[in-house]
Amino acid sequence: MGVFSRRRLAAIALVATSALLSTTACGGGDEAADGGPVTLTVDVFGQFGYEKLYRQYEADHPGVKIVERGTGGNLDEYSPKLTQWLAAGKGAGDVVAIEEGLLVEYKANPQNFVNLLDHGAADLKGNFLEWKWNGGLTADGKQLIGLGTDVGGMAICYRKDLFAAAGLPVDRDAVSKLWPTWQDYVRVGEQFTAKNTGAAFLDAATNTFNTILLQTAGNTTGYSYYDTTDKLVVDSNPAVRQAYDTTVDIIDSGLSGRYGAWSEEWVSAFKQAKFATIACPAWMTGVIEGNAGPDAKGKWDIAQVPGSGGNWGGSYLAVPKQSRHQAEAIALARFLTSAKGQIGAFQEKGPLPSSPQALDDPAIVNSTNAYFSDAPVGKIFAAGAKSLKPVYMGPKNQAVRTEVENAVRTVELGQRNPAQGWTDATNNARKAAAK
Amino acid sequence: MVVQVEGRPPRAAKARGRGPAREHRLARLDVRYSPYLYVTPFFLLFAIFGAYPLVYTFWVSLHDWDLLGVDPTFIGTQNYTQLLADADFWHSVVNTLGIFVISTVPQLLAALWLANLLNRRLRARTTWRMAVLVPNVTSTAAVAIVFAVLFGREFGMINWLLDLVGIDAIDWKANRFAAWTAISAMVDWRWTGYNALIFLAAMQAIPRDLYESASIDGAGRARQFWSITVPLLKPTIIFAVIISTIGGLQLFTEPRLFNSGTNAIRGGPLRESQTVTMYMFENAFAPHYNFGYGSAVAWLLFALIAVVAAINVLILRRLGGGARKGDR
């Protein structure tokens, strides 16, 4: 007994010591700071379309190697990780992508990021749409945290084969004419559903809700859950209520496939052609291509969004202060967010440029997307991009949005009726904002 | 034990001169203190990786602490009072206890039954014994992802099978009890074999002659199991229950990966399967980044585990106590 436990103790001690050693080894894993080759880590989520740009940059800058992490990942999983890295002072990449809805929260603690204005970024102002540039600035305008990558101009992506099966037109101009307003969109959906194609008209009510909200808010108040004085206005902003009511119409007409956005089922539903339309910000085209796979090439097309305009999403690139290679990282971020970089990303995965020069570039204007039946994506997305009306986002935008969209989801699943759902949305939003 | 007996210096040494006396003192020091030295590595590691985080978490829980913020403000027990009145927190406690009960009870019973089977004379016994452990060595993440797909609403195999026997599809993720059941299935798949092996080891330590005498007295297999095996396994069962309690109440990976997509950390639109650890994560990290509040959740979870473990031990003592008296 005594011998056995001693041996076991020794084994435990050995395991523990080696664990300790390996953690310290991880901590010291950085390569030499000067002289030697530099490896820059870029943290992203979803599809940024930088692969070719990295290779080009590496060719132009011998001694720089670029590694991207998080490609194809979910924003919901990416943002807590990034926050933990920032809080721990260790672990974040040299360049990190930040979605606009989360940027507002990071801006409250700008000490975690390099002030790009200290590195001559002020000259770059003209390279970005004005509101996109301003979005990267802290409230006092003294620190620039991020350089804009893309904006999320809206459209509706639809499956032609399912439209044909339901006896609807398949040509993109004809489809666009079907739905000048969201009410028309609901009516078309009802026609589609009546034909029992075995597919739903749209993927999930939450995605459509967010699209309608951002569009309505952009066209009216200019803010969504918070007003510009950072007061929570979920229950008093008519844009929120209007988007909610329209979404309830969609749900009541049975148009939604009720696939939880970004879930495994949602991904499967793309593959199995289980819904016919999806609210489609420019960056969504890359997501669709990834989820629906090469087999569905040429079966998708892009039509205009009901209503007009609207912006959903779009990101920034920032350099955390903890980066050991700040100068190199800033140079890379500048390259990736330059007009040229944005055009390259657009051509690869479809995120719409936030640079007016890029938006005017023939490479964008005349571009088509082979996956989406050669749809003139340049014309569809870029045309409206310069007149996009941004929506102001308040300090706890993400937490509040989560609560409101969850309420929409409970109505969609039939767990709550629309009135209860609205009460939940406003109450839970208030609670979340106070946390 | 052996070490101590051998290391004890002979008594006669006392009578000798100065030199040996010093040696003697050293030997006594060795006897008295070296055991502490031997156990030090554990306590050192525990202090660094166990005690310090525990105390630090408590310190954090007394603050209004934004994860990215610069200077947290001390707010005393405010996080705790707020938490005790937080309906979502209690909802997650009920979820955790619910999943714990419907996973642990069948799991330990099945483990006991499996162990009893494995304890018989079987062909290729070792193979069977190793086979029950296989689920335990697969990665939790892989298990959770596969089960999440099996329990899918539209494309899941379970619903397809239910459909074959004429039962309507169940939305496993948006129905509280269904979600608990699905997660419990995952937990049980993973841990039943592990507990069975622990029970088996204890069973093998039970003297064979007890069974022999019992069968001479006319006791059948079932009677032997309940009157000999189970009472003598009591310490092991208590151990298994406590370990399952700790694991069950800290359940995170299975329910987290069972819910995919946006806000998976909420465990469903109405928090159907959000456990306490998920609630802690939701508050300490995305989307709230309220480190102080999250730490308070962690401490209340600690208290909850202590209470539930104590209740378990009390119940088992009472149950086992009666059986033992009858046997003697």
From TrEMBL, chain A:
Domain of life from the UniProt record: Bacteria
Pfam family membership, one: SBP_bac_8
Assigned keywords, A-Z: Signal
InterPro entries: Bact_solute-bd_prot1 (IPR050490), SBP (IPR006059)
Signal peptide (from-to): 1-27
Residue ranges of the region described as Disordered: 416-435
Polar residues biased stretches: 417-429
Protein name: Cellobiose-binding protein
From TrEMBL, chain B:
Transmembrane segments: 36-59, 97-118, 130-151, 232-252, 296-316
Pfam families documented for this protein: BPD_transp_1
Membrane topology: Multi-pass membrane protein
Presence of the UniProt keyword Cell membrane in the record: yes
Keyword list, A-Z: Cell membrane, Membrane, Transmembrane, Transmembrane helix, Transport
BP term (GO), one: transmembrane transport
InterPro entries in UniProt: ABC_transporter_permease, MetI-like, MetI-like_sf
Sequence ranges assigned to domain ABC transmembrane type-1 in this UniProt record: 93-312
Protein's cellular compartments: Cell membrane
Highest taxon listed in the record's lineage: Bacteria
Keyword Membrane: yes
GO cellular component, one term: plasma membrane
PANTHER family: ABC TRANSPORTER PERMEASE PROTEIN, INNER MEMBRANE ABC TRANSPORTER PERMEASE PROTEIN YCJO
Family (UniProt): Belongs to the binding-protein-dependent transport system permease family.
Identification of the protein by name: Cellobiose transport system permease protein
Source taxonomy: Bacteria, Bacillati, Actinomycetota, Actinomycetes, Micromonosporales
